[in-house]
Structures are given as structure tokens and as C-alpha cells.
Amino acid sequence: MTGKQFISTVKYVASTKPAFLLSEIATYLDEPLTVGQMYAALQPHLAGLGLAAQKTGEDYEISRLLPSPPYILNTAEEKRLDAYLSLRSMPSALESAIEEYITRKTGKDWSDPVILERLRRAIVAQKDDYWKPSDKRSLQYTKGYSVLSYLAYHFPVYFMQARHLLAQFARDGLLKCEMTILDLGTGPGVIPLAVEDFWMCLDTARATVCPVERSKEQIEAFGALARSVAAHDPQVTIEPPREADITSPGDVALPDRVDLMIFSNVLNELAGLPVASRAGILMEYAERLAPDGTILIIEPAEEATSTGLRVLSLALKKRGLTVYAPCTFVWATNCTPDRCWSFQTAPSIRPTRIMNMLAACNEPFRYVNTDIKYSYVMLRKDGKTRTPCCIPKDTKALRLSKVHLNVGKRITVVAAKMSEDLGNTETHMFRLCDGSAEKPVYAVLPAFHIMPSNRELGSAPYGTVLEIRNVLVRYNPAHDAYNLLVSRNTHVSVYSK
């Protein structure tokens, strides 16, 4: 019996009874296997099958996995969260911990001119490498000043943007009373430290964070920061990082069941791997995802990286995962993501002391990193989406894939707002997507045409599905894209069907 047949047999037996002993499967096997051998084969697939295993003597009792109760924010937590998100600086203890770590590693005070100049050179080298074509990059944040410059330049923004994503996760009702969080490619611990910081907004929710990282020096930095700032809050347990290469899932010691799986600013470093290979790696990890769990992938907002994330998310959708957010496939079709540059923004952070010192030079703009712009995708296995939306067949809205046939005409569309304002004070512009367009489509709203009837276009949050009635279609040959001109006679509303 092959591995697939074995798993299918377990799945069948589990569908016929709520619990059974693993030894019972032996009667279905063509070749005899010990209980230990069967458990070793089954264990990586337990969460994916919605099953749990409990050792009973020399055997294992297999039972259906009970979902963890959702954690619903109360009014006090909502207010606490609003105040938390208004903060624009990293916790002072964490900022000091980074400074102290750089001082300890270099043997000189972090503000020493020699240290600052070495950090500047490392930052410039990393940025130059990042802007190379993906097949020419050699991005490595694994040792020496590459780690220290990451702490000085990237860490603050990534830490602060994690707050916004965790808040969205909580407000979407995806938190559980008890969660296991797997952070793959944790680096110096941005996500685990952000989780611990964020969880202080919650009254009783509990989390265990399991980080994975290949670089010994990143793990060392993680340990130093965690020791300096850990609140020892019993609500959050951060396990020691597991040293492993995330491109080899079989070599990573993983929890049996994961409620939230995070790849934060790490998959773009695997750009040398084909999309199919990266999708295959993620699907192996998805075997450990709880039936009601979520995979969160975060990437920088740079065009090639952001577009690459959309290509990857479509590949994962085709392999059976559901895109929970931010995309909404209005017409239940697969999109054409090759030119889908879509990202979210949040208020800029305040520069750290290190950034201010680094910027005291002839080119200060090179060393201050305060803008929060990121692309993300949340994926699930249970079919759940943030904005359930499927257009009835008799609707009069036009698919965006048909706008090229309607240039010069006024139309109605139903589409998600997939950008913040890309225009200026005179002309506002927003990316639109309904999952069908082959070329980029933008809603364009001149400032002098803003009316109460169309103001929702600007005020609706990123990812909101809108109904836009009476817009004029124009083709933009300079960008090979289509503009939907919003006027005073255009009506924009949140789609509710």
C-alpha cells in the first residue's frame, strides 16, 4: 500500500467513527506495519486531515480534531487596540536592546562614527542588491554587518507593520483562545516579538510561537532581543528558534497543528526558485495547518516582489488553498496577476535613534526607513474569505475583463479597491480588481468631482468590494491600462449582495 493509499484509508476510517485505535488500520494494509511506523507516516498529516492523536499504551487513539474556540474582542480590547495602533514608535526597551546588541557585537558604542559608517555601507549594499533582477540577487541577512544593518534599517518597520496585520487578524475574528503560531524564516525575531507585544492588548488569549531560522547569527540576535524585552507574560510562550532551512520542510521539526503560519519578508529571498517549487514548499507546510488555520505571507511593496506574491498566491489557490484576503474573486474566476501591483499602507513610524544618527551625513534619505507599505496574502483550507462575494448571473455589472469592449461608454462594475490613493491632491486614483481583468484597471476621481455619492471610493478600506455605477471607460496607452472616470454623476457604494 502506498503512502497516499494509507492516508486515504485513515481518512475513510475517520469518516465512519469519531475515534479509533491506530492499530485498527493494520487490517486494511497489504503489508504489515507496526503502530510506530504507521504513526510516523500519519503524524505530518494529522492537522491536514482534521485529526488528533493521543498515545494510549503502545497504541494511539485517533480522533476528530475539535476546533479551538474563536477569540472575540470585547469593547475594552477594541479601544485598547485603537490606542495601540496609534503609537508610531517601537517600544523603547526594544530600541535600546538593538543598540546594546550592536554595541556588544562590534565592541564599540553603536554611535561610534566607525560603526555608523560600516552600517551605512552594509545598508547601501543590501539595497543595491535588492534592486537587481530577481535571478541576480544574492540577498543574505545571515552574518556580520548584514545582520546588524537589518536590525538598524529593516527591523523597526517590519515590527511596526506586524502590529497592523495582527490587528486585522484579530478584528477579522481569526484569533483563537489558544493558538500555535509558526514563524518561518524568523530572522532576529520580528514576528515573535511583535506577537508578544501585541498580545498585551488582549485579556485572556494565549499563544505559543515556534520560530524557524537557518542563520546562527540571526538566532543569536533573536536571543539577545528576546532576553532584553521579554515580558514573561504567561499568555505568550516563545519557543527557542529551530535552526533549519525553510526550503526543506521535511528537515524542520514542526508542531503537529499550526493555527497561524507566517512567512514575513522571506519568500522574496527564494526568487531563484520557480513559482511551482515555492508553491510546493508551502503546500508541504500547509499539511500542518489546522483545518481552520491561516497562512499569512508578507512581502515588501516593491513592484516586482509584490507582483510575484500575487503570482504565488494564485498558484497556491490552484493547488486547493483559498485566498482569504485581500483579493476577492468576484466572478469566481482566476485572475491574471502578472501586472497586479497591489499593496497596503499605514502611517509612517518615527525614525529610531540609530536612523537619525545614520542620516547625519550627505545622503540622509538612504538610511531612514519609516514608510509602512506592504503586500500580503492570507490563505486558508476551509474556503473562508474575508469578503464573501459572488455576483448573481443576472447582474448588470460588467466584468473588468470586458472593459476594452466599452471604451467611451458608461458602465457599472463591482470590484475590490486594491490600493490606497495612487494619485495626488488634484486627481485621486485607485486600483480595482474583480478577479477577471487581464490589464490593470483604475478608478480615477478628479478632486472637483468629489461628492457624497462617490466619496466611498476614497474612504473605503483596502480590499473593500465596491459597486461603482455610471463610470466612463478610457484607455491609457502610456501604461496599457484602463481608467474608469468617476464624476459627480457616479455612485459608489459598498457591495452588499
Quick recap:
Helix content is 32%, strand content 23%.
Task: Explain this structure.
The protein is α/β, with parallel strands linked by helices and 497 residues long. It folds into 3 domains: 3-64, Arc Repressor Mutant, subunit A; 75-380, Vaccinia Virus protein VP39 (Rossmann fold); 400-494, OB fold (Dihydrolipoamide Acetyltransferase, E2P), CATH 2.40.50. Helix content is 32%, strand content 23%. The chain contains 14 helices and 18 strands. It has helices at residues 3-16, 35-42, 46-49, 75-86, 92-106, 113-130, 144-153, 155-171, 190-199, 216-229, 275-286, 303-318, 353-358, 456-459; strands spanning 19-21, 51-56, 59-64, 178-184, 206-213, 236-238, 242-243, 258-264, 289-300, 322-325, 344-346, 372-380, 410-417, 427-433, 441-446, 465-476, 481-485, 491-494. Helix 5 packs across helix 10 (216-229), helix 6 (113-130) crosses helix 7 and helix 8 crosses helix 9. The chain is globular, with a radius of gyration of 25 Å. The two termini are 48 Å apart. The mean pLDDT is 91.
What key attributes describe this structure?
single chain, 497 residues, alpha/beta, Arc Repressor Mutant, subunit A, Rossmann fold, OB fold (Dihydrolipoamide Acetyltransferase, E2P), 14 helices, 32% helix, 23% strand
